[in-house]
Protein backbone atom coordinates (compact mmCIF):
# COMPACT_ATOMS: atom_id res chain seq x y z
CA UNK A 1 0.00 0.00 0.00
CA UNK A 2 1.33 3.43 -0.93
CA UNK A 3 -0.01 6.45 0.88
CA UNK A 4 -2.22 8.95 -0.81
CA UNK A 5 -2.12 12.61 0.21
CA UNK A 6 -5.67 12.42 1.54
CA UNK A 7 -4.69 9.50 3.83
CA UNK A 8 -2.47 11.91 5.75
CA UNK A 9 -5.20 14.38 6.75
CA UNK A 10 -5.51 13.18 10.35
CA UNK A 11 -2.66 10.95 11.41
CA UNK A 12 -3.13 9.39 14.87
CA UNK A 13 -0.02 8.36 16.82
CA UNK A 14 -0.70 5.97 19.70
CA UNK A 15 0.47 6.45 23.27
CA UNK A 16 -0.42 4.18 26.16
CA UNK A 17 0.03 7.01 28.71
CA UNK A 18 -3.72 7.68 28.63
CA UNK A 19 -5.17 4.17 28.67
CA UNK A 20 -6.81 4.53 32.11
CA UNK A 21 -7.75 0.86 32.18
CA UNK A 22 -8.84 0.78 28.53
CA UNK A 23 -7.06 -1.21 25.83
CA UNK A 24 -5.05 0.51 23.12
CA UNK A 25 -7.11 -1.45 20.59
CA UNK A 26 -10.39 0.09 21.77
CA UNK A 27 -8.87 3.59 21.82
CA UNK A 28 -7.58 3.20 18.25
CA UNK A 29 -10.99 1.88 17.16
CA UNK A 30 -12.67 4.99 18.61
CA UNK A 31 -10.20 7.21 16.72
CA UNK A 32 -10.96 5.31 13.50
CA UNK A 33 -14.70 5.64 14.11
CA UNK A 34 -14.13 9.38 14.55
CA UNK A 35 -12.40 9.59 11.17
CA UNK A 36 -8.66 9.17 11.73
CA UNK A 37 -7.13 8.59 8.28
CA UNK A 38 -3.77 7.08 9.27
CA UNK A 39 -2.43 5.24 12.35
CA UNK A 40 1.10 4.98 13.68
CA UNK A 41 1.73 2.49 16.48
CA UNK A 42 4.34 3.96 18.80
CA UNK A 43 5.65 1.77 21.61
CA UNK A 44 8.80 2.47 23.56
CA UNK A 45 8.56 -0.03 26.41
CA UNK A 46 6.74 -3.21 25.32
CA UNK A 47 8.75 -6.40 24.89
CA UNK A 48 8.96 -7.92 21.42
CA UNK A 49 6.23 -10.56 21.78
CA UNK A 50 3.70 -8.18 23.33
CA UNK A 51 4.46 -5.53 20.71
CA UNK A 52 4.13 -8.10 17.90
CA UNK A 53 0.75 -9.30 19.17
CA UNK A 54 -0.54 -5.74 19.58
CA UNK A 55 0.77 -4.71 16.16
CA UNK A 56 -1.00 -7.65 14.48
CA UNK A 57 -4.32 -6.79 16.13
CA UNK A 58 -4.16 -3.08 15.34
CA UNK A 59 -2.98 -3.78 11.78
CA UNK A 60 -6.12 -5.91 11.22
CA UNK A 61 -8.28 -3.20 12.80
CA UNK A 62 -6.84 -0.53 10.47
CA UNK A 63 -7.34 -2.83 7.48
CA UNK A 64 -11.03 -3.10 8.41
CA UNK A 65 -11.29 0.71 8.18
CA UNK A 66 -9.01 0.82 5.09
CA UNK A 67 -6.60 3.13 6.89
CA UNK A 68 -2.79 2.86 6.48
CA UNK A 69 -0.96 1.39 9.47
CA UNK A 70 2.72 2.06 10.17
CA UNK A 71 5.10 1.42 13.03
CA UNK A 72 7.33 3.98 14.69
CA UNK A 73 11.04 3.22 14.06
CA UNK A 74 10.92 -0.60 14.16
CA UNK A 75 11.67 -1.75 10.61
CA UNK A 76 12.24 -5.41 11.55
CA UNK A 77 8.92 -5.68 13.40
CA UNK A 78 7.12 -3.91 10.54
CA UNK A 79 8.39 -6.61 8.20
CA UNK A 80 7.45 -9.36 10.65
CA UNK A 81 3.91 -8.12 11.14
CA UNK A 82 3.32 -7.03 7.53
CA UNK A 83 2.63 -3.38 8.45
CA UNK A 84 1.99 -0.88 5.65
CA UNK A 85 5.23 0.88 6.50
CA UNK A 86 7.42 2.67 9.03
CA UNK A 87 8.02 6.19 10.26
CA UNK A 88 11.63 7.05 11.18
CA UNK A 89 13.23 10.04 12.87
CA UNK A 90 16.54 11.68 12.02
CA UNK A 91 18.37 9.53 14.59
CA UNK A 92 16.82 6.25 13.40
CA UNK A 93 17.62 4.15 10.33
CA UNK A 94 18.27 6.30 7.26
CA UNK A 95 15.37 6.50 4.77
CA UNK A 96 17.25 4.83 1.91
CA UNK A 97 18.14 1.85 4.12
CA UNK A 98 14.52 1.60 5.30
CA UNK A 99 13.31 1.62 1.69
CA UNK A 100 15.85 -1.06 0.74
CA UNK A 101 14.66 -3.30 3.58
CA UNK A 102 10.91 -2.75 3.19
CA UNK A 103 10.70 -2.68 -0.61
CA UNK A 104 9.02 -0.27 -2.98
CA UNK A 105 5.42 -1.05 -2.06
CA UNK A 106 5.65 0.03 1.59
CA UNK A 107 5.19 3.48 3.13
CA UNK A 108 8.26 5.27 4.48
CA UNK A 109 7.70 8.42 6.53
CA UNK A 110 10.56 10.59 7.79
CA UNK A 111 10.72 13.33 10.42
CA UNK A 112 12.41 16.53 9.24
CA UNK A 113 13.19 19.88 10.83
CA UNK A 114 15.04 21.60 7.98
CA UNK A 115 14.77 21.98 4.20
CA UNK A 116 18.07 20.09 3.84
CA UNK A 117 16.75 17.10 5.84
CA UNK A 118 13.48 17.19 3.89
CA UNK A 119 15.18 17.16 0.48
CA UNK A 120 17.51 14.35 1.52
CA UNK A 121 14.60 12.24 2.81
CA UNK A 122 12.70 12.79 -0.44
CA UNK A 123 15.77 11.86 -2.48
CA UNK A 124 16.25 8.67 -0.43
CA UNK A 125 12.70 7.45 -1.04
CA UNK A 126 10.47 8.90 1.68
CA UNK A 127 6.76 8.94 0.83
CA UNK A 128 5.86 11.75 3.23
CA UNK A 129 7.47 14.01 5.83
CA UNK A 130 6.46 14.75 9.41
CA UNK A 131 7.64 18.24 10.37
CA UNK A 132 7.72 19.58 13.90
CA UNK A 133 7.35 20.23 16.68
CA UNK A 134 5.20 23.10 15.36
CA UNK A 135 3.94 23.97 18.87
CA UNK A 136 5.38 23.14 22.30
CA UNK A 137 4.69 19.48 23.12
CA UNK A 138 4.93 17.22 26.16
CA UNK A 139 4.90 13.99 24.12
CA UNK A 140 8.57 14.17 23.18
CA UNK A 141 11.21 15.37 25.63
CA UNK A 142 13.74 16.09 22.89
CA UNK A 143 11.34 17.75 20.43
CA UNK A 144 12.84 20.70 18.56
CA UNK A 145 10.42 23.48 17.75
CA UNK A 146 10.10 24.35 14.06
CA UNK A 147 8.66 27.77 13.23
CA UNK A 148 5.85 28.06 10.72
CA UNK A 149 8.05 29.82 8.16
CA UNK A 150 10.29 26.74 8.12
CA UNK A 151 7.24 24.47 7.72
CA UNK A 152 6.19 26.51 4.70
CA UNK A 153 9.73 26.44 3.26
CA UNK A 154 9.84 22.65 3.59
CA UNK A 155 6.42 22.25 1.93
CA UNK A 156 7.58 24.44 -0.98
CA UNK A 157 10.90 22.61 -1.36
CA UNK A 158 9.59 19.05 -1.71
CA UNK A 159 7.11 17.25 -3.97
CA UNK A 160 6.00 14.68 -1.40
CA UNK A 161 3.20 15.34 1.14
CA UNK A 162 4.08 17.08 4.41
CA UNK A 163 2.25 16.82 7.73
CA UNK A 164 2.85 18.85 10.87
CA UNK A 165 3.34 17.31 14.30
CA UNK A 166 3.83 18.55 17.83
CA UNK A 167 1.42 20.19 20.22
CA UNK A 168 -1.41 20.55 17.67
CA UNK A 169 -4.98 20.90 18.96
CA UNK A 170 -8.32 21.79 17.39
CA UNK A 171 -7.84 25.28 18.87
CA UNK A 172 -4.46 26.06 17.28
CA UNK A 173 -4.55 24.04 14.03
CA UNK A 174 -5.81 27.06 12.04
CA UNK A 175 -2.51 28.82 12.78
CA UNK A 176 -0.93 26.39 10.28
CA UNK A 177 -3.11 27.64 7.40
CA UNK A 178 -1.16 28.72 4.36
CA UNK A 179 1.89 26.55 5.08
CA UNK A 180 1.11 24.02 2.33
CA UNK A 181 0.46 21.07 4.64
CA UNK A 182 -1.80 18.16 3.71
CA UNK A 183 -2.53 17.13 7.29
CA UNK A 184 -1.46 16.82 10.90
CA UNK A 185 -0.20 14.11 13.24
CA UNK A 186 -1.39 14.13 16.83
CA UNK A 187 -1.15 12.10 20.00
CA UNK A 188 -2.74 13.77 23.03
CA UNK A 189 -5.26 15.81 20.99
CA UNK A 190 -6.99 12.47 20.39
CA UNK A 191 -5.85 9.89 22.92
CA UNK A 192 -5.78 12.09 26.04
CA UNK A 193 -9.41 13.13 25.53
CA UNK A 194 -12.26 11.56 27.53
CA UNK A 195 -14.33 11.12 24.33
CA UNK A 196 -11.84 9.95 21.71
CA UNK A 197 -14.35 9.57 18.89
CA UNK A 198 -15.77 13.07 19.36
CA UNK A 199 -12.30 14.62 19.76
CA UNK A 200 -11.24 12.96 16.49
CA UNK A 201 -14.34 14.19 14.63
CA UNK A 202 -13.82 17.79 15.81
CA UNK A 203 -10.11 17.76 15.06
CA UNK A 204 -10.70 16.31 11.60
CA UNK A 205 -13.23 19.04 10.74
CA UNK A 206 -10.80 21.74 11.95
CA UNK A 207 -7.93 20.16 9.98
CA UNK A 208 -9.97 19.96 6.77
CA UNK A 209 -10.59 23.69 7.10
CA UNK A 210 -6.86 24.36 7.65
CA UNK A 211 -5.81 22.24 4.66
CA UNK A 212 -8.33 23.99 2.37
CA UNK A 213 -6.74 27.29 3.41
CA UNK A 214 -3.33 25.93 2.35
From TrEMBL:
This is Thiamine-phosphate synthase. One of its GO terms (biological process) is thiamine diphosphate biosynthetic process. CDD domains: TMP_TenI. Pathway: Cofactor biosynthesis; thiamine diphosphate biosynthesis; thiamine phosphate from 4-amino-2-methyl-5-diphosphomethylpyrimidine and 4-methyl-5-(2-phosphoethyl)-thiazole: step 1/1. It comes from Dorea formicigenerans. The keyword Transferase applies. Its EC number is 2.5.1.3. Condenses 4-methyl-5-(beta-hydroxyethyl)thiazole monophosphate (THZ-P) and 2-methyl-4-amino-5-hydroxymethyl pyrimidine pyrophosphate (HMP-PP) to form thiamine monophosphate (TMP). The lineage of its organism: Bacteria, Bacillati, Bacillota, Clostridia, Lachnospirales. Mg(2+) binds at residues 73, 92. One of its GO terms (cellular component) is cytoplasm. It catalyses: 2-[(2R,5Z)-2-carboxy-4-methylthiazol-5(2H)-ylidene]ethyl phosphate + 4-amino-2-methyl-5-(diphosphooxymethyl)pyrimidine + 2 H(+) = thiamine phosphate + CO2 + diphosphate; 2-(2-carboxy-4-methylthiazol-5-yl)ethyl phosphate + 4-amino-2-methyl-5-(diphosphooxymethyl)pyrimidine + 2 H(+) = thiamine phosphate + CO2 + diphosphate; 4-methyl-5-(2-phosphooxyethyl)-thiazole + 4-amino-2-methyl-5-(diphosphooxymethyl)pyrimidine + H(+) = thiamine phosphate + diphosphate. Binds 1 Mg(2+) ion per subunit. Residues 10-190 form the Thiamine phosphate synthase/TenI domain.
Amino acid sequence: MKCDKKDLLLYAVTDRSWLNGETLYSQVEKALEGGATFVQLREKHLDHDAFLQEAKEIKDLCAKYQVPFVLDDDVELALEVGADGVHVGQSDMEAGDVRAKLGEDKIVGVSAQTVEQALLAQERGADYLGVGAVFPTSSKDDAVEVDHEMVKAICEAVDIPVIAIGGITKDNVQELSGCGLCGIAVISAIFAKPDIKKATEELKAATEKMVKAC
